[in-house]
Amino acid sequence: MLEKVFKLKENHTDVKTEILAGITTFMTMAYILAVNPSILSAAGMDQGAVFTATALASLIGTLCMAAFANYPFALAPGMGLNAYFAYTVVIGMGYSWQTALTAVFAEGIIFIILSLTNVREAIFNAIPTCLKTAVSVGIGLFIAFLGLQNANIVVGGSTLVQLFSVDAYNQANGVEASFNNVGITVLLAIIGVLITAIMVIKNIKGNILWGILITWILGIICQIAGLYVPNPEIGFYSLLPDFSSGLAIPSLAPVFGKLDFKNVFSLEFVVVVFAFLFVDLFDTLGTLIGVSTKAGMLDKDGKLPRIKGALMADAVATTVGAVLGTSTTTTFVESASGVTEGGRTGLTSLTTAILFGISLFLSPIFLAIPSFATAPALIIVGFYMLSNVAGINFSDYSEGIPCFICIAAMPFCYSISEGISMGVISYVVINVLTGKAKEKKISVLMYVLVVLFILKYIFL
Fold it and tell me: Lowest CB count within 10 Å: 111, 146, 164, 354, which one?
């Protein structure tokens, strides 16, 4: 039955590989179950209810990806979009979280329409192959940077970022941490990177997943031995699962269906919806481009077959997620970890979705996985994706320079969508001004995108 539904042989994979890939994807993105409630609670939302909404939105969205597109991509409330929701729309602009959820809902409806009318697919196909490759490389650097930050291997400093030291960490975060909390976790993360790298070189199946588990177990051993001392006041919690509250699922009632339509006709509301729409559109496209390029899923013309189904899954998940009570649900770049493990079909997505469902009942276990344990996975996956840089023809400066700008912008601007917009603008402008536009066969849609990107920088 699985062969018939997911076409495993056609995609050169098997059940064991797909399930392992799905578990790996889940493990690398399970942090969203802890982070998203924390961020949205700053907007006044009930943290327990948001946890349930996050798990359910991830479950439904990822199931849609398996059903609509048969791709190994997982969905969850997006990082960056949740921060924009809480800190800009609610705290900064003064909207209620109910109105912000309504903006997300409106964005989802618009996405469904755009997906049905092939607009999103046309945008994907209009981007030159070299820029698609650059997006994959840029995402690799971006998620490696995320891993380094999550593990505190790099911290803020006078040079914006610098190598970890306890003093630098304390100055950047305004806390009094020590080796026995932040210091030991940095060391464990570095050890985790080395362990994962060795298993990758030895070609051990499930190397990324094993890297996460071994790093977490080492942390638990350090806690039992007294080398790691939890300090919740500065964000360092026990690495042991906490079952003191049992296995009850937090009620969804405080956030479910809490949409507020009274501000929908205001100009500011339209701007908020557009901002959500813009970031989600290009973050999703960037993730699909990057992960599918790494998996070799693009056809000879650089197009992604069944992209309409993937985009529709994203749109439906965003709409449903808003009703459930969470910020924009989008395709996660961490899907690359499962693809790297060999995931090629919707069976990977189905596995990840099932684990999100299980997480509702076993939340103490999944919330206990620390960020320093998942950081090595992000760093190693970043290496895998960076290897695509060999596919860019840097000797052709009209392609090489825009690709470099695209790659550099993602980690430096901390945004996948910014990398895409800068890459597209520079590609069109450089080739037009050097008289290479006809030679490169730049599509009309690329010119339209440039205008929209420039307007975005002017007005948003």
Answer: 354
